[in-house]
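Sorry to interrupt, but I need a hand with the structure work. Please put the record directly below this note.
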Amino acid sequence: MTVKAILAEKGHDVFTLGPGEKLSEAVRVLAEHRIGALVVTNGDRQIAGILSERDIVRIIARDGADALESEVRNAMTSKVSICNENSTVHDVMEIMTRGRFRHLPVEKDGLLDGIISIGDVVKRRIEMAEREAEEIKQYIATA
């Protein structure tokens, strides 16, 4: 299964924020939408960074509550790993495991096209395993 198939099912919507926004606004958006990360863009859908709950926890641990008044650019990860629509579930799992993160932006033609979470990947892997098990059962039953 490819990222293109996952996005066709879940959609291409991504919550984004600009690098000059306050961290307090990022926290509000994360909580309101019950999500774990925001993609940071410059308004043109070019990926400038990613901001996860972990990034926010780290800066608050370092700077205290005043960190919430700082800009997103001070807490975001600017070296962002990405995938594209041709990436497979296996590819995405490997990237996420190696990088130890749970959200992977999808880029198409240099622009943000969606986001894949570890939940999306696990759901598809379970579906694939269940489908394979059913096919094996059917094969055995007809053999």
Summary: Residues 118-142 form the longest helix (25 residues).
